[in-house]
Design goal:
CATH architecture of the largest domain: 3-Layer(bba) Sandwich
Mean pLDDT: 92
Helix content: 25-40%
Oligomer: single chain
Number of domains: 2
Structural class: alpha/beta
Shape: elongated
CATH superfamily of the largest domain: FAD/NAD(P)-binding domain
Number of strands: 16
Largest sheet: 5 strands, parallel
Length: 247
């Protein structure tokens, strides 16, 4: 039997498992192929929904589903985090101590944010890419913001979902306009890229929208540190930005 082992049941792992199980359903039925998927929590979070929680106040529970209900019945799903992979021997060990051999492996463990790499950033920022709860915390801050300087953008590279930083700015702009306080909020978008959106073809229509909506732009802005007490962000070339939203 050939075993295709998939680690991680996020969007990539789920799509891979369902696509392969559909294409290989005949040999799976005959026992020639097995597709096990292992995950560390058993819950699937629809990450594009983070934006709707953070800027529209959606219920965080709406984007969380049982992973077992999303996978094809031909897939063997188990909740048991991987602890070690031996690529030479083609074996995986899980936290529970079980060992799985494999013929092919798909790593779909995703990525994680590391705000502690930037001095002062950890615990003093809002984000919508780490969890539904973090996204809702952002919503509470946005919803309670009555005016001042709002700095949004990309802290470092690489980052998740290329369009989401721009989307978040447009959603914040829309929210404050509907609330009737857009004239009291200065929105600044910071990015380490040389333009608003990294792909020039997309940037050609995104950047004019920034200008039209009065969104300030700071390109080539690479964050060096954050001073949460002074509410200032310092770049590696000593540029300084000030925000007024409490973190």
């Amino acid at each position: 039997m050939k075993r295709i082992l998939i680690i991680g049941a996020g969007s990539g792992g789920t799509i891979s498992a369902n696509t392969l199980s559909q294409k290989l359903k005949r040999v799976i039925k005959t026992g020639e192929v097995e597709i096990p998927v292992i995950d560390d929590q058993g819950k699937h979070i629809y990450q594009p929904g983070y934006l709707h929680i953070a800027f529209k106040g959606e219920n965080p529970g709406k984007i969380v589903k049982d992973e077992s209900k999303l996978l094809n019945s031909a897939v063997n799903f188990r909740v048991d985090p991987a602890s070690h992979i031996d690529l030479n021997e083609r074996r995986l060990r899980t936290v529970s101590g079980k060992t799985l051999s494999y013929d092919y492996i798909i790593l779909s463990t995703g990525c994680r944010t590391t705000p502690d790499l930037i001095p002062g950033l950890s615990g003093e920022n809002y984000d919508f890419h780490t969890s539904p709860d973090a996204s809702y915390k952002t919503w509470e801050a946005i919803n309670g913001f009555e005016g001042g300087n709002l700095v949004m953008g990309i802290t470092t590279l690489p980052h998740m979902c290329p369009p989401s930083p721009n989307e978040s700015v447009f959603l914040a702009d829309e929210f404050f306009r509907k609330k009737g306080i857009r004239d009291k909020v200065d929105i600044t978008f910071i990015t380490p890229y040389p333009r608003t959106y990294p792909a020039e073809a997309v940037n050609e229509w995104v950047e004019p929208l920034f200008e039209e909506r009065g969104i300030k732009l700071e390109t080539f802005f690479n964050i060096d540190s954050v001073d949460p007490d002074a509410k200032k962000i310092l770049s590696v070339v000593l540029e300084e930005l000030t925000g007024t939203m409490d973190g």
